[in-house]
Amino acid sequence: MAHQPRKFNIKGLDGISDNQISQHMDILYVGYVNKLNEVEERLKTVDRSKANQVFSDFRALKSDETFALNGVILHELYFENLSAKGEKKPSGKLADLLAREFSSFEKWQEDFKACGMAARGWVIVGHCFYDGKLHNYCLDTHNFNVPSCVTPVLVMDVYEHAYVIDYGVKRPPYLDAFMKNIDWSVCQKRLSSIEGGKSIMQMAAS
Does pTM surpass 0.70? Predict the structure, then answer.
């Protein structure tokens, strides 16, 4: 069955216009869903006997499969953690973890924004099952620099398409706007869904 784009009701954000969200969601994100369907369909009939690490149709499709798939998933997580009416500050276990791993929420925010300036594609606050901690990760593309055994808790798109309508190529004001529109309740639910899971180091030692 073909993948279908998800619907997100995102309006009235502080500093990110409805037009920016609409262009991002209805055109770019939907395009990724369509391309993922196309890649998966072509993989059904591609000639696997000619697979080659230098170039082959099979290699190209398998590489593009991860690009399209992550493009879909990361955009869905991004849209999901944006809201004009959501919780504006982390609380509970999530707030405690951010303060523990980064000394304070303010220090986490400083590091997160620095990642936002350094990354070329995405910034992810991820729970790492290797050490059981929260980290800020920089991704240059959907399928490059993607850490293993990491579950996203907060996702920020820093490609220019995420802010060019509102801010041109000026990224800092977009980062400030993004911070104002995080729905921390969504992030807390993501963290709660993985709480209790052992790190892979703990599993190896048991």
Answer: yes
Reported as a single tens digit per residue, the pLDDT across 87-119 is 999 999 999 999 999 999 999 999 999 999 999
**Which of 72, 115, 81 lies closest to 191 in space, CA to CA?**
81
pLDDT tens digit sequence for 129-174: 999 999 999 999 999 999 999 999 999 999 999 999 999 999 999 9
- 179 exposed, middle or buried (CB, 10 Å; 0-12, 13-18, 19+)? middle
Structure tokens at 181: 């529109």
Plot region of 42 (φ>0 → left; ψ -120 to 50 → alpha; else → beta)? alpha
CB 163 within 8 A of CB 78: no
